[in-house]
Design a protein that fits this description.
The complex is a heterotrimer of chains A (318), B (329) and C (539).
Chain A (H helix, E strand, L loop, with lengths): L15 H10 L2 H31 L4 H5 L13 H8 L2 H32 L6 H13 L4 H11 L6 H4 L6 H14 L2 H9 L4 H12 L1 H17 L2 H6 L8 H12 L16 H4 L1 H24 L14
Chain B lengths: L27 H10 L1 H20 L27 H8 L3 H31 L4 H12 L6 H11 L6 H8 L11 H29 L3 H9 L4 H25 L7 H7 L5 H4 L2 H11 L3 H29 L6
Chain C lengths: L14 H24 L8 E6 L11 H10 L3 E6 L3 H11 L5 E3 L6 H7 L14 H9 L3 H5 E2 L2 E2 L2 E4 L9 E5 H7 L7 H13 L11 E3 L33 E4 L2 E4 L4 H15 L12 H8 L8 E6 L2 H9 L3 E4 L21 E8 L6 H11 L2 H9 L6 E5 L2 E4 L9 H8 L14 E3 L2 H10 L11 H4 L10 H28 L2 H34 L1
Parallel strand pairs in C: 1-2, 1-3, 8-11, 15-16
Antiparallel strand pairs in C: 3-13, 4-5, 6-13, 7-11, 7-12, 9-10, 14-15
Helix pairs in contact in C: 2-12, 9-17, 17-18
Classes of the chains: A mainly alpha (318), B mainly alpha (329), C alpha/beta (539).
């Protein structure tokens, strides 16, 4: 029976020496398994990265080469027309600014509304929690439709202001349910009992104990809300008239669709932007993703550290 | 002895339970009764959520009654003539009903199955990676596709799967398989749709499972290794059980999507060759509702759709309650 | 033992939890406060105009003629510009009754919308005194007033441009390839088949690869036929279609029919199937999107790839590298020596409906009407269509203009027009008496339509051309008809693709006709016949 001795001294867990060490301590079955994991993940990473790579090189390649399938591994016919078009549009910068504002304010409101509620609903002694869950879950399915919502926002004065981006979607029931599930199963009851014995209120337990222990779920929910705000294009499309308030996604979608405007066939009178402009429409398509995705991709690694193991080490004895 | 107001809760009681002398266990009901007295705090924590839901979800719900009324613009949303189940009957008896229902169910259920299993497998695999940097790299790589807009994903599909010069077509030709048309062949629409859905969202959806795995007490892993378990056994006995509550909740929630397909991707992928399998309820409602201004009919169909979804959710929830300890309510 | 159970004092949340609750409360309060302030941000002392424009068009504020409009109005104008997703924006806007003072765009608000939402828009029939330029258009252009009148009310104004050819779709064959292979331009379907076969096998572009695409056409959507599609060849059988086919309705000797149940359509489909089987069509024809279709035709460098296709003008369709290889040709006959005269699609492009609408509840009606009428003034109309005086157009005399070549040498005239102004999407009246020196793209398109002109000879417009824009269905008929159309198209469009790629049109024809009529086509034809009879009687 082989055991792997946990290292007492700080040794690196990565690198060839460490790998060899690990291999020596493992059974053939484990090695085969590790090999399988390695192969599977490499295939997965390749399958996900190659199209991304394709998008990146297509955004700087000549579009007719892209269309005819000749751009495979490297850019060909390199030009920056796509990016020039995108960044020349002054609305992009305003769009970035707006999206940042809406995402930050929106996510803050989301967290303040969702997390306390998820915690409250996770407490088994909360008498009305079953009714309340149903109350929330019902709204995931049944909603009045676009027009009553539009009328409501108009009556509340939310139309054409920044608040229409952050208030109506303050609570996402899906996230609420996920957070609640996490609280129910990952928070040890012993901690609560200890706290209550010491005479703490729910507020104190929540802020001083639950939140620090819930970093993984908080990061996940924060990320979900943040990305939802970042990707939201429908709100701005329908409820905002002022071009200065539009978020990035609406601006990009405008550029994207305007250049793809013939997707359904020739529209209007003939000769609508046929020549030069049409040629590079596709390039813009790919450039648009890079522009819209980059910030979130940059942010994610910072949140990743909260997912790592060992968050609950030492909190519960015996 | 009168209760004295103090800063700690020990002597403030909702009922007349007397404070226990130090060192002696309390009467069984005492702690519970003390908890009940603090219920209002839980309500306070819930208050913003309830308020927002009431205002933004329940108030506009009157719009649903449009499904039972003829839309008359002059009379407003609630002023049209009441026609009861007229629009539902119209939908059920229309020749498109069964094809739409069948197409929607096939696409949704396939996406559901693929989209449920793949993230779990991926999370388990990624969790096995040793080395923080490598793990982070793998995670980042797999979730990147989630951010690509649908218009672009469909555009890429058309480039890669083009019957004349798409990458995939060329690769298949080299192995001797010719004459494929993934974009036009009706029988390949669902696989292409599902595989591209899984490809795009699998990494992102695995995040929640990875978070659950990150919360597993490392002592469990140590104990298992000490007991001589190999990697596969560890996965089966430590990782999977840790994921079960999340899995059950997500499964129940996904059951509520049994007749829900995204509109935009299907709309973009539709062409004359695959329309018999690609026309779903969402695209049909778009064509008649948005383009045709048939608000009542569109609302009725939408309502039918959500009622079916909700029924599935209820069933899934009660099954989960019986079979596991997790359920929504 | 306490005599009574003391009521618990509400513990005030302390420290961080207090701060948290406080934060939530203030956020909510701030939100409500600000939302209250944000309400009614629309200034009531300006005119709001929504422009549904092309994606390439530059901002309205950069167009000089816009300044003139604002001066005429006398009231500041706020421009709201929409270039994508107009359908999704329009719907809740109309349903909530939130319309701006003016809406501009090519058919931005359709007749179907007007049926439901007519009370939102001003009836201009009693305001024509304030609209002398628009009245001039009604007087000089036959049908302009009928186009926008429904039940006596005029809720929108059309646009008229004199110079556009009757045919929008033009037919092209690669003349250089014909010369290389020693062939003549085809005049019948069989000759076309032979020419396409020769293109496929003879390597006319001389690059040693069999990469020629003999026949290509604009992607056929699921919502009917349109320009630049194979339905152009329906005219070979003598069938007079409109707008490239549309939902299939056409008129023959005063009787409304539909091509989807007509045997001549079956003949065309069989011919196309023959071409597909022989590999003469682009294999991507049914799956490519528009931008792929366009870029394929541009070839590589000076090597063309497409042999026969349809387009607006050669340079637009085939690009600057290879367009000179192509020649515009006339309509083909189905069979040599046939008795039925050939026809070409009748495209309603000179007179277009619903270019501008006015809100029924605008507080600035006089200013708005002044501004709307200014669009139709001669100088403004020319600028709306082509761009500013001085940069894009030059005035060379009274009612004489010359359209200048693009100031940016990298752009073609068409792109230049669409970038500089709202172009065909705007309201304008290019008068019959005006003389305009046309830009290169338009004069090219006019020249390319010349070979098709004989196909219009002898057409009895009243009895043989389906007056699609002039039939105004009422609300109930609109609802029934549009549901039926959706059902019919859901059957016939996939069937078209099936029959062309797999054959079977003749075998399945009878069953197909029965199904289609059953699913709603019979009812729709009957509805339209009624409206046509009324329309014909009033002429």
């Amino acid at each position: 029976m082989t055991t792997s001795t946990p290292s007492a001294t700080p040794t690196r867990s990565a690198g060839p020496a460490a790998a060899l060490r690990r291999m020596r301590h493992q059974s053939p079955g484990d090695l085969a398994f590790a090999a399988f994991v390695g192969v599977a993940l490499t295939a997965v990473v390749f399958a996900t990265l190659y199209p991304i790579w394709f998008v990146a090189i297509a955004s700087v390649s000549a579009p007719d080469l892209v269309q005819s399938g000749q751009v495979l591994l490297f850019p060909r016919g390199v030009n920056s027309f796509g990016y020039e078009q995108i960044f020349a549009d002054a609305r992009i910068w305003q769009g970035y600014r707006n999206t940042l504002t809406y995402a930050v304010v929106g996510t803050a409101i989301n967290m303040l509304v969702t997390i306390p509620a998820a915690y409250a609903l996770s407490r088994r002694e909360f008498r009305t929690r079953r009714v309340l869950i149903f109350f929330f879950a019902f709204t995931m399915f049944f909603n009045g439709g676009l027009i009553p919502n539009y009328l409501l926002y108009r009556d509340l004065g939310l139309l054409n202001t920044m608040w229409v981006f952050v208030l109506p979607t303050a609570l996402n029931v899906y996230n609420l349910i996920i957070a609640r599930a996490f609280f129910e199963h990952s928070l040890p009851e012993e901690l609560h009992e200890a706290a209550f014995i010491d005479g703490a209120s729910y507020f104190q337990v929540f802020t001083r104990m639950v939140i620090p222990l819930s970093k993984p779920i908080l990061s996940v929910i924060l990320l979900y809300y943040l990305v939802a705000h970042w990707n939201d294009f429908f709100t701005g499309l329908v409820f905002i008239r002022d071009a200065d308030l539009q978020p990035l996604q609406v601006v990009l979608r405008d550029i994207l669709l305007s250049n793809n405007v013939f997707a359904g066939g020739a529209g209007g009178a003939g000769g609508t932007g046929g020549g030069y402009g049409q040629q590079f429409a596709d390039q813009i398509k790919y450039g648009v993703i890079v522009v819209s995705t980059l910030p979130v991709v940059v942010l994610y690694p910072f949140l990743q550290k909260y997912f790592e193991k060992g968050v609950l080490i030492g909190s519960v004895k015996g | 002895m009168t209760a004295v107001l103090q800063d700690d809760d020990r002597t403030t009681t909702a009922t007349g339970a007397e404070p226990a002398p130090p060192g002696r266990p309390r009467p069984p009901g005492a702690r519970l009764r003390r908890h009940l007295g603090r219920q209002w705090q839980l309500w306070a924590l819930m208050a913003p959520a309830i308020a927002f839901t009431l205002v933004f979800a329940y108030v506009p719900m009157y719009g649903l009654q449009l499904a039972f009324r003829r839309f008359d613009f002059e009379a407003g949303l609630t002023g049209g003539e009441w026609v009861g189940l007229f629009y539902f009957e119209q939908f059920f008896s229309s020749p498109q009903f069964w094809p739409l229902l069948r197409n929607t169910a096939v696409i949704s259920v396939s996406t559901l199955v693929g989209g449920f299993i793949a993230p779990i497998v991926l999370a388990l695999l990624i969790n096995q990676v040793v080395g923080r940097r490598r793990k982070r790299f793998t995670q980042t790589a797999t979730y990147l596709p989630h951010f690509i807009s649908i218009v672009v994903v469909v555009g890429m599909l058309q480039v890669f799967l083009s019957p004349s010069n798409g990458l995939v077509t060329q690769l298949l030709e080299r192995v001797g398989i010719t004459g494929v048309n993934f974009l036009g062949d009706p029988s390949s629409f669902v696989p292409v749709y599902v595989i591209s859905e899984v490809w795009q969202h699998c990494g992102w959806n695995s995040i929640i499972y990875l978070a659950a795995l990150a919360s597993v007490d490392t002592q469990l892993y140590e104990a298992a290794r000490i007991d001589g378990a190999n990697r596969w056994q560890i996965i089966r006995n430590v990782d999977l059980p840790a994921l079960v509550p999340t899995m059950v909740v997500l499964f129940i929630l996904n059951m509520g999507g049994v007749l829900a397909t995204g509109f935009e991707k299907i709309f973009l992928m539709q062409n004359t060759l695959n329309l018999p399998v690609s026309e779903v309820i969402a695209t049909y409602v778009y064509k008649i509702g948005i383009v045709g201004n048939q608000f009542s009919y569109a609302t009725a169909i939408g309502l039918f759709n959500t009622v079916v979804n909700f029924a599935f959710l209820l069933v899934a929830n009660s099954v989960a309650k019986r079979v596991s300890s997790t359920s929504l309510w | 033992m306490p005599a009574t159970a003391p009521r618990p004092h509400p513990r005030r949340p302390r420290g961080r939890s207090r701060r948290v609750t406080g934060l939530v409360a203030s956020c909510a309060a701030a939100g409500l406060l600000l939302s209250g302030c944000g309400a009614d941000a629309q200034a009531d002392d300006s005119i709001s105009v929504m422009v549904v424009k092309h994606g390439l068009t530059k901002p309205m504020a950069e167009m000089a003629w816009v300044q003139q409009l604002e001066e005429v109005a006398g009231v500041p104008v706020e421009w709201e510009e929409v270039s994508s997703d107009w359908d999704q924006k329009k719907n809740p806007m109309l349903a909530a009754g939130d319309v701006p003072d003016v809406i501009i765009g090519f058919n931005a608000v359709t007749d179907q919308d007007l049926v439901t939402f007519h009370s939102l828009f001003e009836d201009l029939s009693d305001d024509m005194d304030a609209l002398p330029n628009a009245q001039a258009m009604f007087d000089e252009v036959d049908g302009a007033q009928d186009l926008v009148t429904r039940d006596g009310a005029i809720r929108a104004l059309p646009s008229y441009k004199k110079y556009w050819p009757q045919a929008i779709t033009h037919q092209y064959v690669n003349q250089q390839w014909l010369d290389t292979l020693g062939l003549e331009a085809p005049t019948t379907w069989d000759e076309l088949f032979d020419v396409l076969t020769a293109f496929k096998e003879g390597d006319p572009n001389g690059n040693g690869q069999a990469d020629e695409i003999p026949l290509d056409f604009s992607p056929v959507g699921t919502t009917g036929f349109g320009y630049f599609q194979p339905t152009a060849l329906l005219g070979s059988t003598g069938m007079q279609v409109v707008n490239g086919g549309g939902n299939g309705y056409f008129l023959e000797d005063g009787e409304v029919k539909n091509l989807f149940v007509d045997e001549r359509y079956r003949d065309l489909v069989e011919f196309l199937h023959r071409c597909w089987e022989a590999g003469l069509m682009s294999p991507d024809a049914f799956t490519q999107d528009y931008s792929t279709y366009q870029s394929v035709a541009r070839g590589t460098g000076d090597q063309a790839r497409v042999g026969f296709s349809w387009g607006w003008s050669a340079s637009d369709r085939f690009g600057p590298g290879v367009y000179q290889q192509y020649a515009a040709i006339g309509q083909l006959q189905q069979e040599a020596g046939q008795s039925a005269p050939v026809r070409w699609s009748w495209d309603y492009e000179n007179l277009t409906p619903n270019a501008v609408l006015v809100s029924a509840s605008t507080p600035h009606k006089d200013a708005v009407l002044r501004m709307v009428d200014q669009f139709y003034a001669p100088d403004t109309s020319v600028q709306v269509l082509w761009g500013d005086l001085g940069t894009n157009v030059e005035k060379t005399g009274d009612e004489q203009y010359t359209v200048l070549p693009p100031a940016d040498p990298a752009l073609d005239p068409s792109t230049w027009k669409w970038t500089s102004s709202v172009a065909d999407n705007g309201p304008f009246f290019i008068r019959p008496e005006m003389e305009v020196q046309l830009p290169a793209d338009l004069s090219e398109a006019v020249a390319d339509s010349a070979p098709l002109q004989p196909a219009y000879d002898g057409v009895d417009v009243l009895r043989d051309v389906y007056p699609q824009p002039f039939l105004k269905l009422d609300e109930d008929d609109t609802l029934v008809s549009s549901l039926n159309d959706t059902a019919v198209l859901g059957v016939v469009m996939p069937q078209f693709a099936q029959w062309v790629t797999r054959g079977g049109a003749t075998r399945d024809w009878d069953e197909h006709v029965e199904t289609v009529l059953d699913v709603g086509l019979a009812e729709n034809v009957e509805i339209r016949q009624r409206y046509y009879d009324e329309y014909a009687a009033s002429r």
